[in-house]
Automatic annotation (TrEMBL):
<keyword id="KW-1133">Transmembrane helix</keyword>
<protein>
    <recommendedName>
        <fullName>Urease accessory protein UreH-like transmembrane domain-containing protein</fullName>
    </recommendedName>
</protein>
<dbReference type="Pfam" id="PF13386">
    <property type="entry name" value="DsbD_2"/>
</dbReference>
<feature type="transmembrane region" description="Helical">
    <location>
        <begin position="79"/>
        <end position="101"/>
    </location>
</feature>
<feature type="transmembrane region" description="Helical">
    <location>
        <begin position="201"/>
        <end position="222"/>
    </location>
</feature>
<feature type="domain" description="Urease accessory protein UreH-like transmembrane">
    <location>
        <begin position="9"/>
        <end position="211"/>
    </location>
</feature>
<keyword id="KW-0812">Transmembrane</keyword>
<dbReference type="InterPro" id="IPR039447">
    <property type="entry name" value="UreH-like_TM_dom"/>
</dbReference>
<feature type="transmembrane region" description="Helical">
    <location>
        <begin position="133"/>
        <end position="155"/>
    </location>
</feature>
<feature type="transmembrane region" description="Helical">
    <location>
        <begin position="55"/>
        <end position="73"/>
    </location>
</feature>
<feature type="transmembrane region" description="Helical">
    <location>
        <begin position="161"/>
        <end position="180"/>
    </location>
</feature>
<feature type="transmembrane region" description="Helical">
    <location>
        <begin position="6"/>
        <end position="34"/>
    </location>
</feature>
<keyword id="KW-0472">Membrane</keyword>
Length: 224
């Protein structure tokens, strides 16, 4: 069973990292949620379908990488994996705060995959039906993103593919408020979340999560 604290952490990472998500996916969400020929209720349904597809892709990726992580999440290897997860959270915080952008190199990993998916995703625009919105979200969930990739690496330390998938679902849910309101209140939300103090505070909280994740006590006892 996944620790509720881990789920809360995943949700908070998504919520606090939303300043980055707006830049990566906000344009798509806004284009879906600001169709003037549709009612507000209809636009909401399209946004929900898009985000459901996006979060589903996060969960699939989490399950796949979590299966690999589960194979080594025991004994000393498990401590190493947890340490790696903690450092990834710290790296995420530094990334969100714009103090260090090293995790952007992770985006190159998915570049080749996106070259295959991207053209198909583009053909789904403009979105006219709910299935189109869902499929666009599924495709967009594989967009190369340092924040998503670093969260995936962190989630892979959970110990099982089920828990990793659940953590990625939590991360996706955390991004939902910003992505959802970006589609409906695009410029207002973007202005708030991209303020410097918002980014810095979010970054510090994520770094704190990372430090808390590090198995410092176990590592010290082993060293002695």
């Amino acid at each position: 069973m996944t620790d509720p604290l881990l789920i809360s952490t995943a949700i908070m990472i998504g919520l606090l990292g939303s300043t980055h998500c707006i830049g990566m996916c906000g344009g798509i969400a806004a284009s879906i949620g600001l169709q003037r020929h549709r009612s507000t209720l209809s636009n909401t349904s399209f946004l929900m379908s898009y985000n459901l597809g996006r979060i589903s892709s996060y969960m699939i990726a989490g399950a796949l990488l979590g299966s690999v992580g589960a194979l080594v999440a025991t004994g000393t290897s498990g401590l190493i994996l947890r340490s790696f997860a903690g450092f990834m959270l710290i790296a995420m915080g530094l990334y969100v705060g714009q103090w260090w952008l090293g995790i952007t190199h992770l985006e190159k990993v998915g570049g080749k995959l996106w070259k295959l998916i991207g053209p198909s995703a583009s053909r789904l625009l403009p979105v006219k039906t709910l299935p189109q919105a869902l499929l666009l979200g599924v495709a967009w969930g594989w967009l190369p993103c340092g924040l998503v990739y670093s969260t995936l690496l962190w989630a892979s330390s959970a110990g099982s593919w089920q828990q990793s998938a659940l953590l990625m679902a939590g991360f996706g849910l955390g991004t939902l408020p910003a992505m959802f309101t970006t589609g409906l209140l695009a410029q207002q939300v973007k202005a708030l979340l991209q303020q410097k103090w918002t980014r810095k505070l979010s970054a510090l909280v994520i770094i704190a999560f990372g430090i808390f994740t590090l198995p410092l006590t176990e590592l010290i006892s082993i060293s002695h």
